[in-house]
Design brief:
The complex is a heterodimer of chains A (115) and B (616).
Chain A (H helix, E strand, L loop, with lengths): L14 H8 L4 H11 L2 H15 L2 H16 L6 H14 L3 H19 L1
Helix pairs in contact in A: 3-6, 4-5
Chain B lengths: L7 E4 L2 E4 L3 H10 L2 H6 L3 E4 L4 E4 L20 E4 L5 E3 L7 H7 L9 E4 L5 E3 L4 E3 L2 H14 L24 H10 L27 H11 L2 H8 L18 H12 L10 H10 L11 H19 L4 H19 L4 H32 L2 H6 L1 E9 L5 E8 L2 E4 L34 E2 H8 L3 E3 L5 E3 L4 E3 L1 E9 L3 E7 L1 E4 L4 E4 L4 E2 L3 E3 L5 H8 L21 E12 L4 E9 L2 E6 L2 E5 L1 H6 L2 E8 L14
Parallel strand pairs in B: 12-18, 13-21
Antiparallel strand pairs in B: 1-2, 3-4, 5-6, 5-7, 7-8, 8-9, 10-11, 10-17, 14-17, 15-16, 18-27, 19-20, 22-23, 23-24, 23-27, 24-25, 25-26
Helix pairs in contact in B: 6-10, 8-9, 11-12
The chains are: A mainly alpha (115), B alpha+beta (616).
Chain lengths: 115, 616
């Protein structure tokens, strides 16, 4: 499949699109774009991955998923289920040191991007 | 939640999930063309090698419906390239896209733009396709030039294990040439064969403990007891030359003779002192150091036996021939340069060949290496360009660090939740919190390690020193795995040594599959269905990855004033071997002991008392 859209396959443009494009992008969106364009988002993601693996968070989540899958049966579990189940626990168990480090990185990025 | 029919079936020994009906439809309509065409959009990001889908490298994907670029999961429809977000239970524009009545059916299959995984919007679950994974794998291998496979690997033809029982002629042979071992008192005849105390000859508990473990290493025991090394006919011992293997043979005969009085391994100690003269004293030594030195001693004997290895001779003669030829080439400088380059290539090939022969030698040269020698694989990945350099090294044991558990969160983090010794999944039990386990140490051993900025590695692709990521894995498992826990820390910086007393939990049965190179490689790139290295699947089945514990060498006391004790597992009973005293003990005692060296043997060599076998 080439990414050239053929008119036969193209979905009809939803109405919501038109409104959105006319509004100014929010601050959140601007920051997000800046993060992606500078490659900082990718670096932050890699750093986060590394830290979460080091502290055992990923193993913990894996174990939660395994336990849930065993309980429900391998064929009755979808990705959405797993995400839904572990998201609250995952968010709560991120170590404070990791949170602090990433916030620090983001702050320094914003400071350098603002100038 | 939709219930799914997702049965797995095996292709070439790999579990492969059945496609959902929507994926099956998609495949019949489009075959695998869309997946192959997708390859152009696959971007592999070093150093981790994450695959992402981007039409152009700097594209910022946004949801077509809500314009949001910051949703965690964005899916691109495989049919019309429309990007939608999927964030249940809030909005799922991806599901809406698939279900929309305005579009003709066939838009259910989408691909996660950040993870390169297929998703079925109708089933709301991830789906798997071999051709898609093959396309991702291809993108990986073409994006970063992998170094060519080193020459020093040989595909071993596996011989199937067949249990043996003697026929009439063999039985007659055994009866005629064997003499029964007199059992002593009635009480002793209940104990298994080969249990005999070893006298302490002056701080020699380090030697006694390792020897006890070796006496009951099944392949080693079988080798010596079946007279494969006969100390009366051994050639290397002409005159005063020592042969550690002969002394081992003598000890095996003594220990398995049925005599239960403690034995003094004085002859062996003397021979070993001659071999390792720097360790020859009555001071306490390190058991692991003794183990390595002993294996080396048994190996050396074989090397000295043979005439100069043929491979070395071949290399020397070829090199001298080439130099002679080069001298004779009497042409222009440019021609000489060209010839020189060709010669360099030939010499490189020969050196690889020699390495190959030596590595092969390592596995076949002597009984010590045949039993204990495995192959480690080391991958060093450049963080800048993703180029990976792979080396294979032989090893006779695994030395593992006993690092403190990270306590990062407010809750304690349980490590290594796949212990195989019958304990419940440890997420439900809190007793595993903070305890180091052997599998945790192995996890750490095979974890990718970032080499610091002071250890920059020269990347062949970048042609400059770069920061890199190093990962170890096990290419070939030995018959007997010896795990050595680094409890003695010697710091040359602070000029002090200390002992790490922390408790280590070890299982009775160990599955080494997650630490094999095939598993590590597969996990590195997202557990794709497609095998990466065709060489990895040359018969290393799960059968040869299962190990059973049979001996534990423990250390108690301080660094300079301590004591080694060995626990042996025979016929599912545990025996404590404390120099000359051997007692039967409970399994709990062993579990609570401070493991220093753990010996695991491949399951097929470990005969359980319950099965009817010849040897127990």
């Amino acid at each position: 499949m080439s990414y050239k859209r053929s008119s036969i396959n193209r979905p009809p443009t939803p109405d919501a699109d038109k409104d959105r494009e006319n509004q100014d992008p929010t601050l959140q969106e601007i920051i997000n774009i800046k993060l992606i364009e500078s490659g900082e988002k990718e670096r932050l993601k890699e750093l986060l991955r590394e830290r979460l693996i080091e502290c055992g968070w990923r193993d913990e989540m894996k174990a939660l998923c395994r336990a849930y899958t065993r309980k429900k049966g391998r064929n009755n579990v979808t990705v959405d289920d797993l995400v839904h189940v572990i998201t609250p626990k995952g968010r709560a168990s991120v170590p404070d040191s990791v949170k602090a480090e990433l916030l620090q990185r983001i702050r320094s990025f914003l400071a350098s991007a603002a100038s | 939640m939709s219930s799914k029919i997702n049965h797995h079936h095996k292709i070439n020994g790999q579990i492969f999930p059945q496609p959902c009906p929507h994926l099956a439809d998609f495949r019949t309509r489009n075959d695998s063309k869309p997946f192959r065409a997708l390859q152009a959009c696959l971007r592999i990001k070093p150093p981790g090698g994450r695959a992402a889908i981007r039409r152009d490298p700097y594209e910022v994907p946004r949801c077509g419906a809500c314009g949001d670029a910051s949703k965690p999961r964005l899916y691109a429809c495989m049919t019309c390239a429309c990007i939608c977000c999927h964030a249940p239970p809030h909005s799922s524009h991806a599901a809406a896209h698939a279900a929309s009545r305005c579009i003709p059916p066939g838009h259910e299959i989408a691909v996660d733009v950040d993870r390169a995984e297929l998703f079925c919007c109708a089933c709301r679950d991830q789906v798997y396709d071999r051709d898609f994974d093959a396309a991702v794998v291809l993108a990986h291998t073409t994006s970063s030039i992998q170094s060519s496979k080193p020459e020093n690997l040989r595909k071993r033809r596996r011989i199937d294990y067949r249990p043996w029982s003697p026929d009439l002629r063999e039985r007659a042979l055994m009866v005629n040439n064997a003499s029964p071992i007199d059992s002593m008192n009635g009480s002793n005849s209940n104990l298994p064969m080969g249990l005999r105390g070893l006298n302490n000859l002056g701080n020699t508990c380090f030697m006694n403990s390792v020897l006890q473990a070796l006496f009951h290493t099944p392949p080693l025991r079988n080798y010596f007891l079946s007279d494969r090394h006969n100390r009366y006919y051994c050639q290397s011992k002409n005159g005063v030359r020592l042969c550690l293997a002969c002394d081992m043979d003598a000890m095996f005969s003594a220990v398995f003779s049925g005599d239960r009085t403690p034995y003094s391994p004085a002859k062996f100690l003397y021979s070993w002192w001659q071999h390792a003269s720097n360790l020859a004293s009555y001071e306490q030594q390190d058991a692991h150091e003794f183990f390595i030195s002993m294996l080396d001693g048994i190996h050396e004997k074989v090397e000295k036996d043979q005439s100069k290895p043929r491979s070395q001779g071949l290399m020397m003669s070829s090199a001298s021939l080439l130099v002679l030829y080069y001298d004779k080439v009497d042409t222009s400088p440019r021609e000489r340069t060209r010839v020189a380059l060709v010669l360099v290539e030939i010499l490189e090939f020969l050196s690889n060949l020699m390495k190959f022969l030596l590595i092969r030698c390592n596995g076949e040269c002597c009984i010590a290496h045949r039993v204990f020698s495995g192959i480690l694989r080391s991958d060093v990945m450049c963080m800048a360009c993703g180029f990976t350099s792979t080396t294979y090294d032989p090893c006779v044991d695994f030395s593992l660090d006993l690092e403190p558990n990270q306590v990062g969160s407010a809750k304690t983090v349980p490590k290594s939740n796949h212990s195989c010794n019958g304990e419940a999944d440890s997420m439900s039990s809190s007793q595993n919190c903070g305890i180091s386990t052997l599998m945790g140490c192995l996890d750490r051993f095979t974890r990718p390690e970032r080499l610091g900025s002071d250890q920059k590695f020269f990347c062949q692709q970048c042609q400059v020193r770069q920061e890199s990521l190093k990962q170890m894995s096990i290419r070939k498992l030995p018959l007997v795995s010896c795990f050595h826990i680094k409890r003695f820390e010697h710091s040359s910086v602070r000029k002090m040594s200390r002992k790490v007393d922390r408790y280590l939990q070890f299982p009775l049965s160990l599955n080494m599959t997650p630490y094999l190179s095939s598993s590590i490689l597969r996990g590195r790139f997202g557990n794709r269905c497609f095998p990466y290295d065709g060489d990895e699947s040359d018969g290393l089945s799960e059968l040869s990855s299962e190990f059973e514990l049979f001996a534990v060498v423990t250390h108690t006391g301080k660094l300079d004033a301590g004591h080694y004790v060995t626990y042996l597992r025979l016929s599912n009973q545990w025996y404590k071997c404390d120099d000359a005293w051997i007692t039967q003990v409970n399994e709990n005692i062993v579990r609570a002991a401070q493991g220093y060296m753990m010996f695991y043997v491949q399951k097929m060599f470990y005969y359980k008392a319950s099965e009817k076998q010849v040897v127990s």
